[in-house]
Amino acid sequence: MISFFEASLAELSIHRIGNKSQDEFYILSEQSIALKDNLLSNLLQQYFLSPFEKTNEAYRFFHPNTDLNLNEVYHFAAEIFENGEKFHSNSKELAKYLYDVSGHPKIKAGELYVAFFENVQIEGELHDAIGIFKSETKETFLKVYPENGGFGLSYEEGAININKLDKGCLIFNTDKDEGFRVAVIDQTNRSAEAVYWKDEFLKLKIRNDSFNQTNNVLGVYKNFVTEQLDQDFEISKADKIDLLNKSMKYFKEKESFDLDEFSNEVIGNEEGINSFKNYKKNFEEELDAPIPDNFDISGAAVKKQARVYKSVLKLDKNFHIYIHGNKELIEKGYDDDKSMNYYKVYFKEEQ
Q: Which terminus of the chain is less hemmed in, N or C, by CB atoms within 10 Å?
């Protein structure tokens, strides 16, 4: 959880990054901006920081060769944290490096903002943070102003909407030896363009904290139920929904996760338990994302996954049955006369 009610914007440098494949160049500013206008400073903080209020995933820098200093953004950020006088010179190095990886022909040119914040809160702790942001989308704004006893109308092209941050990251001055703690925003929907920001420029990996552990287990279990179970067992959709409901109930009621306890309480079948554990193991190996057998449950991750856990039984195009509780109150059968499947639902009263 990130908040910025105590944060202040201490320094800001702006550069322009073109698209290398289009023979566009970069333009580097000679010095950082002196922020003397409090209103402008507050607007910039809203533009840069407010999108991160809803982010929960925490990342870290990495490098394939395991030497963190070979990660360019990590290296420049570490220098800034160590010596604030190097802020602007390192912001220029970040701009040049971003230009080097902006080789995809569809990457848009735009302004790069490198900012230094004091007292940004993440997970209840206050830290200094470096923000790296890029604005690519420009909009046209109308202006209405008093004129000749009425109103005049004009417009401004190429303006930036402060409610729409295209790309950004916050690097918190904590956990340096593990690759810092990093939050990231990328509003680009087309994957070919989006890869360069997080994967090529920043080179980030998900941190293995309680949020991501909870998120991963719920995601793995959901995929196991919806995709794998059909291959291993004969199981109805109602039974699948019941398994999903049981898992969500477990995570909402418990404070910590225990793999054996979860497997016994939610799955309760030895063959199914072994199948799930093998599925989890394959996920960890394929994505190089180990999930411990015991960890504290993150309520924010449970809330996030609850949005995509479906408890709807869709019957042709005529009926949707929402199953939230006792599966024993719904029975499946087959009508020989009509040659159709049916469900029998028991209830005490209509609401």
A: C
184 in Cβ contact with 175 (< 8 Å): no
Q: pLDDT value at position 105?
A: 83
Q: Are 73 and 61 in contact (CB under 8 A)?
A: yes
Q: How far apart are CA 106 and CA 98, in angstroms?
A: 15
Residue 256's CB: how many other CB atoms inside 10 A? 10
Name the 3-class secondary structure at 144.
strand
Pick out the chain residues at pLDDT < 50. none
The pLDDT of residue 326 is: 64
**Amino acid letter, residue 158:** G
* Distance in angstroms (rounded) separating the CA atoms of residues 154 and 80: 42
Task: Report the predicted TM-score, pTM, of the whole model to 2 decimal places.
Answer: 0.71
Cα torsion 158, 160, 164, 168: sign: positive
SS3 call for 332: strand
Element at 241 (helix H, strand E): helix 237-253
Structure tokens at 147: 């004129």
Reported as type and span, the H/E element at residue 119 is strand 110-122
pLDDT tens-digit series, residues 60-119: 999 988 899 999 999 999 999 999 999 999 999 999 999 999 888 888 899 999 999 999
Cα–Cα distance list, 49 to 184, 211, 214, 327 (Å)? 11, 21, 25, 45
Q: What is the per-residue pLDDT for 319? A: 65
Tokens of residue 321, six digits: 């049955």
Residue 86 φ then ψ, to 5°: -90, 10
